[in-house]
Amino acid sequence: MIIATYNVNGVNGRLPVLLRWLQEKQPDVVCLQELKAPQEKFPEKEINDAGYHAVWHGQKSWNGVAILSRGSEPQEVRRSLPGNDEDDQSRYIEAIVDGILIGCLYLPNGNPSPGPKFDYKLSWFDRLHKHADYLLKENVPVVLAGDYNAIPTGFDVYKPERWVDDALFRPETRAAYKSLVDQGWTDALRHLYPDEVIYTFWDYFRKAYDRNAGLRIDHFLLSPLVLERLVAAGVDKEVRGWEKTSDHAPVWIELN
């Protein structure tokens, strides 16, 4: 079973890239972020024609998350993160697929920091902590996948000294991510490849992809019942080099 996460940076504008990747990789489950499309503009027909069922939470121009499944239909559990009923940003959706609870998330960027956007990022992280703790205590197989907009360590970024004031790498962000992992989650890619340079995002500017000047900000956090099934993980880096592609590459794990 292959589960993937992919910040598509506009699901309609990047649809040819997404469909090509789905055909070539054929993942069983896909978490998408940054749909940048209202609910009614999600390309459901094209996704269905590619062999996938979908649940999604859209938002005009910004944000947006979706879960695709190549087998059984995803059973939606929730489409917002608990803890703030007034938060109308579409950044979280949760569904059960083949007995695994999948949480697809798009954590706030937080820039400029400090400031209101960074405060919102940290408060969203706090809500995620609480919900993730609840999910662990349920003792069910859970995958929390998506764009965390968090660089865990200096090993996860090209030239970390250039990112010290960025919201993705500020000490508060790294501490929040570490605190989440310390609840009992496992960062899948780092678990399998503790010493390898791995990036999932390359900026469009300064030929970042050509120079491999990237960041690792798209993560899989696995509960213990999923970790025991983990056999492989990786980044489809070549997709970042395709024409009119996202600035993120798809990331995936394989479970037995």
Automatic annotation (TrEMBL):
PROSITE patterns: AP_NUCLEASE_F1_1, AP_NUCLEASE_F1_3, AP_NUCLEASE_F1_4. InterPro entries: AP_endonuc_1 (IPR004808), AP_endonuclease_F1_BS (IPR020847), AP_endonuclease_F1_CS (IPR020848), Endo/exonu/phosph_ase_sf (IPR036691), Endo/exonuclease/phosphatase (IPR005135), ExoIII-like (IPR037493). The keyword Manganese applies. Probably binds two magnesium or manganese ions per subunit. Keywords: Hydrolase, Magnesium, Manganese, Metal-binding. Residues 4-248 form the Endonuclease/exonuclease/phosphatase domain. One of its GO terms (biological process) is DNA repair. The record marks 149 as: Transition state stabilizer. The record marks 218 as: Important for catalytic activity. The record marks 248 as: Interaction with DNA substrate. The active site is at 106, 147 (proton donor/acceptor), 248 (proton acceptor). Belongs to the DNA repair enzymes AP/ExoA family. This is Exodeoxyribonuclease III. It comes from Dyadobacter frigoris. The lineage of its organism: Bacteria, Pseudomonadati, Bacteroidota, Cytophagia, Cytophagales.
